[in-house]
C-alpha cells in the first residue's frame, strides 16, 4: 500500500553530465517490488505542481533506504538535482505493479534488456534475482558511452553478466541491444525456462517483443514509461492501449495496472 512520507537525502551524486543517483532514507517505507516507483515532489513551491515518477533503483535493508537513478530530462528533474544532502524530500511510495518472479528458479535464465535509464528498475530486479540464484545476463544499451555513465554499479554487481552496446561503438559492442539479445535467445541449452525483462524506449520494446515472439514465444515483461499526473490511476493521464481489446476496457493505466506489463497485455 503506497504511503506519503518525508524522506531525508543521504546522498545525491552526479554520474556524468546527465545522470544522478539519489539516496533517500524514508522511515517506515514498506518493502517495494522491482519495477515499482515513487512520486517525488521536486519543488518547495507549487511549481511544478505534479510529482515526478522515478523508478526505484534499489532498496536497502533496514530503515527505509531508497535509491533512485534518473536523467536530467526536463524542468522537474533539473529542480530535483538542486536538492542537497540533509534536505527533506516529500515522496509517495511504493506505487504501481512490479515485475513478477513467479516460475523463476536457479534452473531458469533471465535476460534483462535496458535502454539508457531504463536500467534503473532492472538493476533492482537483478539484485532480487541474484538472491534467488537465478542466472542473469544484463544487456545495457545507449547511443554512446556518455549515455551509460552510471554503469559502474551494474558492472560491479554483475561482472561478466553485463553486456554493453552503443550505437556509435564508443563502448562495448557496436549496435543495438537486440543484437546480443538475438544471440542469447538462440542459446537454449541447459535451462528449464528463459525469461525476458525489458525497460527502455518504445521502439526498443517493440523490437524486443518481436524477437521474443518469433524466436520461441519466450515470456516477456516490459516496464513502460509515461507522463503521469496523480500516480494512483484516478486521472487517466497515463493510459496506454490494451492489446486486442475494444470499448471501455481497451486501455490500461501505466501507473496502476503497470508500469510492468506482460507482453500481450498492452500495445507496444
Note down, in words, how this protein is organized:
The chain has 268 residues and is an alpha/beta fold. The protein has two domains: 3-95, Beta Barrel (Elongation Factor Tu (Ef-tu), domain 3), CATH 2.40.30; 108-223, 3-Layer(aba) Sandwich (Rossmann fold), CATH 3.40.50. The chain contains five helices and 15 strands. The protein has helices at 75-80, 119-131, 151-158, 178-185, 202-214, and strands spanning 3-15, 19-25, 37-40, 52-59, 65-71, 88-95, 108-115, 136-142, 162-166, 173-174, 193-199, 220-223, 239-241, 251-253, 260-262. The strands form three sheets. Strands 10-9-8-7-11-12-15 form a seven-stranded mixed beta sheet, sandwiched between helices. It has a six-stranded antiparallel beta barrel with strand order 1-2-5-4-3-6. Strands 13-14 form a two-stranded antiparallel ribbon. A hairpin with a 3-residue loop joins strand 1 and strand 2. The two termini are 28 Å apart.
Amino acid at each position: 500500500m503506497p504511503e506519503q512520507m518525508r524522506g531525508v537525502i543521504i546522498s545525491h551524486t552526479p554520474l556524468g553530465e546527465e545522470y544522478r543517483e539519489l539516496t533517500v532514507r524514508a522511515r517506515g517505507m514498506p518493502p517495494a517490488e522491482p519495477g515499482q516507483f515513487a512520486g517525488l515532489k521536486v519543488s518547495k513551491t507549487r511549481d511544478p505542481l505534479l510529482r515526478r515518477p522515478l523508478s526505484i533503483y534499489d532498496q536497502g535493508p533496514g530503515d527505509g533506504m531508497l535509491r533512485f537513478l534518473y536523467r536530467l530530462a526536463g524542468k522537474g528533474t533539473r529542480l530535483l538535482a538542486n536538492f542537497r544532502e540533509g534536505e527533506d524530500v516529500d515522496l509517495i511510495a511504493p506505487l504501481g505493479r512490479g515485475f513478477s518472479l513467479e516460475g523463476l528458479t536457479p534452473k531458469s535464465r533471465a535476460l534483462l534488456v535496458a535502454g539508457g535509464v531504463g536500467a534503473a528498475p532492472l538493476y533492482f530486479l537483478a539484485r532480487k534475482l541474484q538472491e534467488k540464484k537465478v542466472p542473469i545476463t544484463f544487456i545495457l544499451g545507449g547511443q554512446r558511452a556518455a549515455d551509460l555513465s552510471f554503469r559502474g554499479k551494474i558492472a560491479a554487481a554483475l561482472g561478466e553478466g553485463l553486456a554493453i552496446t552503443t550505437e556509435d561503438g564508443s563502448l562495448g559492442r557496436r549496435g543495438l541491444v537486440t543484437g546480443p539479445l538475438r544471440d542469447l535467445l538462440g542459446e537454449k541449452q541447459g535451462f528449464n525456462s528463459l525469461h525476458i525483462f525489458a525497460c527502455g524506449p518504445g521502439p526498443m520494446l517493440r523490437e524486443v517483443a518481436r524477437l521474443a515472439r518469433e524466436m520461441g514465444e519466450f515470456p516477456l515483461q516490459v516496464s513502460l514509461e509515461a507522463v503521469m499526473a496523480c500516480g494512483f490511476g484516478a486521472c487517466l493521464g497515463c493510459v496506454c492501449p490494451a492489446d486486442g481489446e475494444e470499448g471501455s476496457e481497451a486501455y490500461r493505466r501505466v501507473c496502476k495496472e503497470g508500469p510492468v506489463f506482460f507482453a500481450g497485455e498492452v500495445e507496444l
